[in-house]
Amino acid sequence: MFAVIGLFRDFRDFKEGEIQAWVSMKWLTKAPIEVEKVSRNAFIFFCYNGEDRDKLAALSSACYKGTLIVFKKWMPSSSLMDYDFSWGTVWIKVEGLPLHVNQVQWPRIYWRGLGQSCILTGK
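User: That's the sequence. What structure does it adopt?
Assistant: Structure tokens below.
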């Protein structure tokens, strides 16, 4: 079986059944994904299809009820301490920017305090 571990970067304690319902009802997958809670804020997503696992890992992060979830490919012989969950990809769409600030250098200036920006796109 293929798996991805997801760390919820939040103080809230989400229940396994709640996350399983979200995955089952909202995610488009080729096969079922089973969720298992392994700590207060970490879940393993067991994928029955390798492509589902690869797409989830490549996604790098997701948002659930305002919570950032950082995904990493899971290896059965590893522990949570083996993974670096200190970063994740986040897409931010800002509508209504004046045309003169709708250029790639402006987000770097305005959001410098939010963290490191590796890639900016105009999409």
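Confidence is low (pLDDT under 50) at residues 118-123.
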